[in-house]
Amino acid sequence: MSPEQLSRIIRTTAELIGARLDAVFADLSTLLPDILRIAESATDRRPAKADFEPLRPQLQAIIARHEGLVDGAGIAFGQDALRDAAWWLEWWRLGQGGEPEFAAHVFNPDSIRYYDYSAMSWFRLPTTTGHSLAMGPYIDSGGTDLNIVTLAVPFQTAEGSPSALGADLCLPVLASIFLKSLATRDRAVVLVNDGGRVVTSNTARHSTGTLLRATDSSALAALFEDYVPVSSAVPGRIPWHVGVLKSGG
Q1: How far apart, in whole angstroms, are the C-alpha atoms of residue 138 and residue 208?
Q2: pLDDT computed for residue 1 by the predictor
Q3: What is the pLDDT of the chain when averaged over all its residues?
Q4: Is CB count within 10 Å lower at the N or C end of the chain?
Q5: pLDDT of residue 148 exceeding 80
Q6: Which has the closest alpha carbon to 199: 132, 131, 151?
Q7: Is 0.90 topped by the overall pTM?
């Protein structure tokens, strides 16, 4: 395969990955008006957990709509956004039987299964900056305990701290989309985040979660012969690149 052909392929792949993730972001964003409506109509503008149960079919539909790419979706509430829980995840995950199941989490700090999502980057960065963001791969300690990627869309209700809508991506499905688009193993090609961590690749040497040797964005780009940003309808929310590693990389 010529360098020109490979260059075209990685650009097409970057566009495809961006389009698939943008479609998930769009689905999440369609829920925002309903969430804000529920919050604003609640007693003292502080809704309860049960007030959001009518949105469960919509969350489950997001999981079903993306051909396996999304294996979890939900609402991560900020501190005291609800009147009956300091912290709460209205989160649904694809079960072993292929149907969405409620994902129970432990919010007791004294438990060994404590899930402090407020401290995790997938929640903290979007809610702090106010910008939607693709985060990962990261180990979801206390949640799935697996390497995952989460797409998060922040929102703010009248009461409580900022909250977020989120969708977890199934990394094997994302890898399949990536490999099918590339259709080559002649050169080492990786999908990498802005921190130099591999999302997926076409080589076992650079498996998901591998950290490439780089100290900053310039050093990271220098590892590649060709390095293409993943496109998005909203600049910056998918801080990933598709790149052809230099020989020996």
Answers
A1: 9
A2: 74
A3: 92
A4: N
A5: yes
A6: 151
A7: yes
